[in-house]
Amino acid sequence: MTPEIIAHRGYSARAPENTVAALRLALDVGAPALEWDLQASADGVPMVVHDETLERTTDGLGRVDTYTQAELSDLDAGSWFDPAFAGEPLPALSEVLDAVGARAHRLYPEIKVGASPKEVDRILREVENRELLRKTVFISMDWDALDRIQAAAPGTSVAYIVEAEDRFEAAIDRARDRPHTLLDPDYRLVLADPDRTARARSLGIEFAVWTVNDPEEAARLARMGVSRFTTNEVERLLEWASEWKTEG
Length: 248
Prior knowledge:
alpha/beta
């Protein structure tokens, strides 16, 4: 089986993260799957941006949730990365889904901790209205938000993000015997405890991991049963995945 390569915030090593340009570039070079982050605007619109504040990746100032969608869409989300991307807008979820949803094999939108039930419901509705649920895996550190999604749309896939060692066991306990549920840990946590990873795999729990940029580390993880790899270095990991399939 060919490992699934998931473009982290799009092809974020070659284009400004969480923009349509980065997501399209990832697809253009062959990535089968895309990941991006979501924050709500002041008027409740899911926007594709990682940080709660605007300074790092746009020419805006302050918190995302103090601006409307229209105001956020006027920001430049590309110049910080390279002048060639000047004017690249900060997109709404709807714009990303319309631009790349049909092309990608799988989508991984990340719901941030602190999203309200209303915000979670709107994210689900936007994906559902475009008939993209079957190819979507909702991911989050807020596992209750993911449970809400599965309650509202049974059969929808989710992945519990595990960012700390002390949450790993709880994630395994929560995911076991739950169909359509994956673990999505920091890859270093997986490498640090092969026995725990093997136990989880023996329970039928599938793993995605983040953020793997080194093919040698990807190979170690694949030998442990990891099949999905989030990466900034999309082409580098795609080349590795192709070779891994051949070797396997």
